[in-house]
Amino acid sequence: MFDLTGKIALVTGAASGIGEAAAKTLACAGAFVYVADLDVPNGRRVAAEIHKKGRFGDFVELDVANDDDCRSIAEIVHTEQGKLDILVNNAGIGHVGTIREATAYDLDRLYAVNVRGMFNLTKAFIDGMIERKHGVIVNTASIGGVVAIKERLAYCTTKFAVVGFTKCLALDHALQGIRANAICPGRVETEFVKKRIAEYPDPQKAYEEMTATQAIGRMATPEEIAASILYLASDEAAFVTGTAFEIDGGFSVGK
């Protein structure tokens, strides 16, 4: 089950959080994984930890918002491996605020990474996938791409766009051997989230409020989200495409 031996994968935003867990999970399942991120020290750390487990991968520095960067990475991957089987578009950034607090700059900044970044990198690899009649694309959206979240206007706007982008990819290329799905996590207890919670006036209260938004009363671990990415990337999900896969602990139940 979920054997990725011989597969080549690339995970963006892989230096921490969900991306790090996804890169390690795919590597443990047998894939060669490109750990892609702007955070060079932590990206190299993740690649080194993959090697320590006897698995295979490499770090590549990548700014998904830079179209030239994306084309260059695609050339590197195709030169070194001859293909890319699995593309995990996970890199993303957030913003807190209503339309009154958000500026046009904020929206453009989020759009550049969360939406345009996926467009750039997918476009760089899609022709090779079409030529081989094989490819899996997993895009990290959010439960905020399925239901509205209070005071997350700019963020939700981009994540709703990710879900639409994914569905269009799936429909356009289903007969060319390409599957595209989006994962829509609820709140995930990453190191980034922990640091943000620590900045609140009452961190314990903030933590309790965030965990309470999930019906099961806790946040997800990055590894739980990575397990869903592994499933969607595997041959076991061969009949799954165009989905917005909600992994939210019941966040959206009743909404």
What characterizes the major β-sheet? Answer: 7 strands, parallel
H-E order: EHEHEHEHHEHEHHHE
Number of helices: 9
The strand order across the widest sheet is 3-2-1-4-5-6-7
Strand percentage lies at 15-25%
Uncertain stretches of 5 or more adjacent residues: none
Helix content: 40-55%
Oligomeric status: single chain
Q: Rg, please? A: 17 Å
Distance between the termini: 34 Å
Give the overall pLDDT as a whole number.
96
Strands, count: 7
Q: In one word, what is the shape? A: globular
Helix/strand structural class? alpha/beta
Concise structural overview:
With 255 residues, the protein is of the alpha/beta class. 47% of the residues lie in helices and 15% in strands.
Provide a descriptive summary of the structure in words.
By secondary structure, this protein is of the alpha/beta class. The protein contains nine helices and seven strands; from the N terminus they run E-H-E-H-E-H-E-H-H-E-H-E-H-H-H-E. The two termini are 34 Å apart. The model has no long low-confidence stretch (mean pLDDT 96).
Please specify the SSE layout and strand pairing.
Elements: E1 8-12, H1 17-28, E2 32-37, H2 40-52, E3 56-61, H3 67-81, E4 86-89, H4 104-114, H5 116-132, E5 135-140, H6 153-173, E6 178-185, H7 191-198, H8 203-212, H9 222-233, E7 244-247
Parallel strand pairs: 1-2, 1-4, 2-3, 4-5, 5-6, 6-7
Helix pairs in contact: 1-2, 1-9, 3-5, 4-6
